[in-house]
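Q: I have 120 residues here and want to know how they pack in 3D. Can you give me a structure?
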Amino acid sequence: MNTQDVANKYTEWMRQGQGQQIIEELYADNIVSREMPNWPGQVVTQGIKSVAQKNEEWMMNVEDFHSSEVSEPLVADNHFTVRMAFDVTFKDRGRQKMEELATFTVENGKITEEQFFYSM
């Protein structure tokens, strides 16, 4: 798959709430995930098992999804960006509205890096 194919699959599966499928099928084994500084938890997570665990912990902390929105991907060479917005109630911090830009690097048909920029 080229970058556009990966971006389209990512967007489709995010809209369907298929985060686990994204990890299993689109992420490289050596993926590097970067959160913004001051994020509760680890800022840089490396490796597919650690990234999958981070995603699982985030999802387990969600009490309710009130709404979510995922933009069309913007692709340039081997990178793509998606804007996402969520209205979520977390078990440990209550209801929050979040907006974020997620940027990705694709190599050999797999996502090798992701980085998140957000406000809450």
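Q: Anything worth noting?
A: Strands lie at 27-34, 44-46, 62-70, 74-76, 79-90, 94-107, 110-119. The radius of gyration is 14 Å.
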